[in-house]
Design brief:
two-stranded antiparallel ribbon, zinc-finger, Znf_RING, zinc, zinc ion binding, metal-binding
Length: about 190
């Protein structure tokens, strides 16, 4: 049985999944068909942003795909079910009370000290090899093609003998260039 999660004062329990603030007396909220609750202002902002993104992506498509594309359908930010809502009326709703009364963020001395400590920790972890740089990792097994102007393989040194997986680790070489990836098998 589906129950609406409203408190005694007819306010939803929990938080708005868009702004992450709770619901207070005086907040305007909307219940979707899937029984999720959002501040009306937040749901309007979410749907407007999603529609804008949809239109921008649609413009990138060739005309024939634009013509056959489905019309924009708003979806629930929580469960991704299609929802029906009047964005224009939701846009007239005031922002949540907690958003209006929130204090302005300011960097404190305590926060600056924490940033300094985290920076030192990052450097220490980096020195010990604890930070993985995806870009550096991506170039470890790079074989450049003649198109790149260099025909040399850059491979890390590996211990002699069979690899732990039971096959020769150098049997496959992946060639990566800026535009393509090719796998070569050596026998």
């Amino acid at each position: 049985m589906v129950r609406e999660h409203l408190t005694r004062s007819n306010l939803p329990t929990g938080q708005c999944a868009v702004c992450l603030y709770g619901f207070r007396d005086g907040d305007e909220f909307t219940k979707t068909e899937c029984y999720h609750h959002f501040h009306s202002h937040c749901l309007a902002a979410h749907v407007a942003a999603a529609e804008k993104y949809y239109r921008e992506e649609l413009e990138k498509l060739p005309q024939w795909q634009q013509d056959s594309a489905k019309e924009f359908q708003a979806i629930c930010p929580v469960c991704r079910e299609p929802i029906n809502c009047d964005v224009e009326s939701l846009c007239t709703a005031p922002p949540p009370i907690d958003v209006e009364t929130a204090t302005e963020f300011a960097v404190t001395a305590e926060l600056r000290e924490l940033q300094r400590q985290m920076s030192l920790l990052f450097v220490r972890q980096q020195e010990r090899g604890g930070i993985i740089d995806p870009e550096a990792e991506g170039t470890k097994l790079l074989l450049r093609t003649e198109e790149d102007g260099v025909a040399a393989a850059e491979t890390p040194t590996s211990p002699a003998g069979p690899s732990p997986s039971g096959f020769n680790a150098n049997a496959n070489v992946v060639i990566r260039t800026n535009s393509k990836e090719i796998t070569h098998f050596f026998y």
